Amino acid sequence: MDSLSSSFLQKHALHHSLPPPPPLGILQLKISSVKSDEQYTKIPHLTKIFIPAQQKTTQTIRRQTRKTDFLTIFFNSLEDFICKFMDPPLRPSIDPNHVLSGNFAPVNELPPTACPVVSGSLPPSLNGAYIRNGSNPQFFPRSPYHLFDGDGMLHSTTISDGKARFCSRFVKTYKYNLEREIGSPVIPNFFSAFNGLPASLARCAVTIGRVIATQYDPRRGIGVANTSLALIGGKLFALCESDLPYRIKLTPGGDIITLGRHESFGKPFLTMTAHPKIDADTGEAFAFRHSIFPPFLTYFRINAEGIKQPEIPISSLNKATLIHDFAVTKNYAVFPDTKVLMEPREILKGRPPFRVDPEKVPRMGIIPRYAADEREMWWIEVPGCNIMHAANAWEEDGGDTIVMVAPNILAVEHALERMDLMRASLERIEINVKTKSVRRRAVATGNLDFAVINPAYVGKKNRYVYAALGSPLPKTGGVVKIDLSLSTTGSGDCTVASHVYPPGCYGGEPFFVAKEPDNPAAEEDDGYLVTYLHNENIEESKFIVMDAKSPTLEIVAAVKLPRRVPYGFHGIFVPECDIKTL
């Protein structure tokens, strides 16, 4: 969500040749294979592969010698001075001692570890891996820190023949590797670093100094890859909208390897959404990026072979809006233009670069899915509708109506500062393509977000949505099942099933896994919901499996994990057959 940083550095970075950090080799070339675990995995596209020096295998983690040269000591001393003497008192939303308390506290990496099934049994259709991404700083912050700022860590539960193995690994981004080498944070946290005018200007100066001194090169990426995962063109990626995706590999033994930054999806400084939409029928991925400089929005498509198609700049978006997600149908792409803006000039006022414009009227932008340019795009005002996540969208009435289902953030002013006060209402939004009008109504009660569907129905009419119950977000206290076939009858709450976790137990986003993904006759809800559940009373985490057809979303299997799993963001299930070809 911090694409501001990438765009800002694109505009102002010094253009000179910077050597890679000494302990890291960097290869940028067309690679035909990479050797890992004595096997070869094909990589046909341009990916930057970071290889730790003297590393025999990509699984081996060696303690790297931290740089103690004069420049490192000098810049770190300046950072310490800013924190101690220039930062004003920290608000709770950026105080690391508050943000990283309880089960939000970071954890270390964990190699693949066998886990006991403590209730039920793991069904054969779950042979594969459930992986969830989240924010996990490798160093406890000495400066302001927001929940969205941490390094990406992937928590994976690999299942085979009823047995489970758990693994946690950092996404080895350029930022992660650089800061691990230096031994402390280097790249500023753009959700939190700008805290008061003197401290903000000082941090900008230190950052520019590090670039001039060749301590880091922003062209090689500044993102944390901490938000989500996606399978695109047969490849697995960890994503965060402040950077390009990082390609990930899963080993047969359940380990997680970062192969590198996938530069085929963009040039240096460019970014990509953390929420691409994958059409299960065509294999295409639809994506976008947003920026603080015109064009503020760019739409593009990636074909089934993983080749990015020509971009479509959207110049009709006249402000730098924080667009986190969108939706696609058979013929359209729909973009929410919310009240949340990205304005770097706010830094000069001593304020964060993200703000809510109370005077702005939210809009929806509609563009043909396969548009060659933006000439056919149009916008419609949708007062009071601020969409951060979209569950799905499809067309009705012969294509005259676009139906979008999404959580609407009711108190958007709390979206970044006070997430505990934020509420989301799951809505059915109908856009009449002919009359350019909108009709909306809530389909459920409760504070619902992290809404998911059967992935086979992306862009097609679906009946069921599964959403997490905020307690408060991003902690979730349960899961509800919504029957959208009831949403056209004016019945109000369309909840048909729910599972509330016991007191003191909290989960995250559920993910739907079909029992028979290759069976076209299978019912839409014939499958399982998987997620991580943490018991704060005994500090124990589990991987749980719920029956998606059950009226109580019954837990049919639970795996006790070897250590707690911090609360995080979005996940994915990768079938065993796909793991073998990644």
Structure characterization notes:
Pfam families: RPE65 (PF03055). Its EC number is 1.14.99.42. Fe cation binds at residues 275, 324, 389, 570. This protein is mainly beta. It is 10% helix and 35% strand. It contains six helices and 37 strands. The strands form ten sheets. Strands 6, 32, 33, 34, 35 and 36 form a six-stranded antiparallel β-sheet that branches. β8 and β9 form a beta hairpin.
* Number of E-type strands: 37
Please tell me the overall pLDDT: 87
**Beta-strand content:** 25-35%
Number of alpha- plus pi-helical segments = 6
Q: Describe the largest sheet.
A: 6 strands, antiparallel
> What Rg, in angstroms, do the CA atoms define?
23 Å
Helix content: 10-25%
C-alpha termini separation: 26 Å
Stretches where pLDDT is under 50 for at least 5 consecutive residues are: 1-65
Shape: globular
Family: Belongs to the carotenoid oxygenase family.
InterPro entries: Carotenoid_Oase
Protein name: Beta, beta-carotene 15,15'-dioxygenase
GO molecular function: carotenoid dioxygenase activity; metal ion binding
Briefly, what is this?
This protein has 582 residues and is mostly beta strands.
Supply database-style keywords:
582 residues; mainly beta; 6-stranded antiparallel sheet; 5-stranded antiparallel sheet; 35% strand; globular; disordered N terminus
Topology of this structure?
Elements: H1 3-12, E1 24-27, E2 33-36, E3 39-42, E4 49-52, H2 70-86, H3 96-99, E5 110-115, E6 117-120, E7 128-135, E8 152-160, E9 163-170, H4 174-182, H5 197-212, E10 228-232, E11 235-239, E12 246-250, E13 256-261, E14 277-278, E15 285-290, E16 297-302, E17 312-314, E18 327-328, E19 332-337, E20 340-342, E21 354-356, E22 363-368, E23 378-381, E24 392-396, E25 401-409, E26 424-432, E27 437-442, E28 448-452, E29 464-470, E30 476-483, E31 495-500, E32 505-506, E33 511-514, E34 527-535, E35 540-547, E36 555-560, E37 571-575, H6 576-579
Antiparallel strand pairs: 1-4, 2-3, 5-9, 6-36, 7-8, 7-37, 8-9, 10-11, 11-12, 12-13, 14-15, 15-16, 16-17, 18-19, 19-22, 20-21, 22-23, 24-25, 25-26, 26-27, 28-29, 29-30, 30-31, 32-34, 33-34, 34-35, 35-36
Cofactor: Fe(2+)
Protein name: Beta, beta-carotene 15,15'-dioxygenase
GO molecular function, one term: metal ion binding
